[in-house]
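Hi R.,

Here's the chain you asked about this morning:
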Amino acid sequence: MRGELFAVLTLLLILGAGWLAYVWVFERAGDADLLVQSVIGDVQHARADGRVSQAQEGEALEREDRIRAGGDGQAVLAFGPQMRVTVTPGSEVVVVDVTAEGVRLDLEGGEVQATVRPGGGTLGIGAEGRLFEMEDADLRMIRADDGTVAVESLRGNVRFGVEGATQELHAGERVVAPRGRPPLPPSSSEELLLQVQWPSRRSRSERATISGRTEPGASVRVGGPGEWVTVRAAEDGSFAAETPLAEGVNEVRVEATSVLGNVGRSSGTLERDTTAPVVGVEIR
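And here is the predicted structure, written out as tokens:
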């Protein structure tokens, strides 16, 4: 009887050890998978073999797979318990690589928000040939329609390369990289730099050209009560826009909004006077 009991206990121990080994192996394998954790609205999963379907929670993503969030869609990607990447509405990412050490994505357009906690591995997100990496940080990253890339560190340090050297973006700092140009120096100010070149304060013209400089890719609104003109700052940050002038004194406002949403404002007055006498010179 004791022998039979011993045999049963031995068998249970073997089965228990086998089950623990199974769980350990597959949990380890699952930690090296990039999964679709949650889906809201229209989110497409485009696979490397050409198949496209609505993304489903729990799906594993492989190299060259794409996640496309529609205008009302959003997806959260997970790599183990310590890494999350949120693909916001109207955005697209492609999976470049997934290893046991971490994940590499490319942002094709739109915005992602990412969090990596200690022990979560390395997350690299690339866009326009630039790579931003982190191990213990939170960030926002935007790739604008004109190719401008903007990154903001919300917590921790984010690494990126500039002319063969590595720089770090610290918590509270942002960096903007215009397409085809070196990144601008990191900035920690929430107020957006805005320099306005005002034309002559008094003229007879019915329109005035307002020019200046701000952050590359920023949206610049110029105008006042009744009419606004919106332009986008060029790769060097320059902008120019025409605004109509009514007879008399006009208050003109300039408002620039960066790719990351930082705002800079300026205002001035321009006078249109068509009643002033024209001074002529009589030649005898």
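One quick note: The CA atoms of residues 101 and 121 lie 5 Å apart.

Cheers,
M.
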